[in-house]
Amino acid sequence: MVQKPRILIVTPEVTYLPEDMGEKSHYSAKAGGLADVSAALVSALFDLSCDVHVALPDYRSIFNGYTTKTHNRELEKIRKRLDEERIHLAADRAFFYLDNVYSGYSDKDLKVSLAFQREVINNIIPRVQPDIIHCNDWMTGLIPAMARQIGIPCLFTIHNIHTMTSTMAEIEDRGIDAASFWKWLFFKKPPHNYEESREWNRIDFISSGVFAAHYVNVVSPTFLTEIVENRHPFVEKCLQKELTNKYRAGCATGILNAPEPEFNPAVDEMIRYNYGPKNHRKLKQKNKLYLQKILDLEEDENAVIFFWPSRLDPAQKGCQLLAQIMFDIVSEYWEANLQVVSVASGDYQKHFHDIVRFHNLSHRVAICGFNEELSHQAFASSDFIFMPSSFEPCGLPQMVGSIYGTLPIVHDTGGLHDTIHQLDYKQDSGNGFLFNVHDANGFKWAIDRALDFYFLDPDVKEIQINRIMIESVLEFNHSRCAEEYINLYEKMLQRPFLV
Hints:
Distance between the termini: 18 Å
Structural class: alpha/beta
Low-confidence stretches: 65-71, 77-83
Mean pLDDT: 89
Helix content: 40-55%
Radius of gyration: 24 Å
Strand order of the largest sheet: 3-2-1-4-5-8-9
């Protein structure tokens, strides 16, 4: 086995990189959680002295403050210095002038993906000569086939099950020699031979990544199991089949993500009053009063506050369940001054506003668009968070909530199942409240259990929240996540290589 393997992480998104790796302050290429996870993994591996390299598209938007013509020369110096170090920027006009990682148009996103993968395959991999390649999501789905062909172990991580398709003719027109590794690609129809399939038989990118990779991981063990057991009808059959094959061959696993280190109430610069496990009781009350004041809610340090932290997407996040019971829970617990704070964007925000206006709940319910600073303050001020997702590949707000002593109320699915366990204060166990049936009644049942806990003796609650905060910091962190990936890399290097 290689003593210190060289790891090349290929990702279309990243939010930051360690100072010693390059120009950390100039990076900002984010469309979703993949950017945060990629940044966290690269940084954690780098901090552990791993020989880690990263391949990224050279988005102009990455270099904040260096986009005018007068700074072009400085930009070129930065790029050269990065390439001489550990950050390898794939260059192509397909993405150089983009302001966002994804355009929202499938043909443009496909063009970006092919240009990025061409540069990684043709230039970056030969230059870096990695011992392991770690690819992420559909934008890198062709690279595992190339890695398989040339004998480099490849890990393929699925953060999002979205995919794209293309033909070999289109792929080759973009400068990728698909003919050299076509047998490791996943076609929509079984191919008879290269010539017969080249023009018409479409290749599925994410299924190709799974099919060709030596090892696959999903961002939670339970979500992987749910896909293998065919419990999510929105997962395409081809992906479900290929993941099942990898799983049964012992080549698929789940590794949970972790929140950023700044998500800690002791050091969070975005909250009004910092606190830790030992002094959370008094300072969370002060944060609560501050949040109530800025949101024009009734100011009461003993009011129970529920926080909605996730995007308002009824297809996944379950915001329609809250809409169905919002008036009922506020009314039922009126004397306890129950309050709801939502800091999230999405089309469903209008429904929440309509409920508040119709029932005149503006001093009990605050509906706000997403704002990072306000979201941090809400974590620090609230007693509970809502996460009634119908499915959840991993999820981070439930981990953040536990770290802040803001206990999660979640549907028992995917990454929520892996991170939240039913609170039993008598046994000093658990960190939140789960419900099994995904409907408004199930959600309401879990909220009632949370309120049963809230109305316990304050000294009993303090002991439990202190325990949960300490356990959560130890469990939900990047070091743990990086160690799992390192163990997986070592396992891959120890396996006999089969072409």
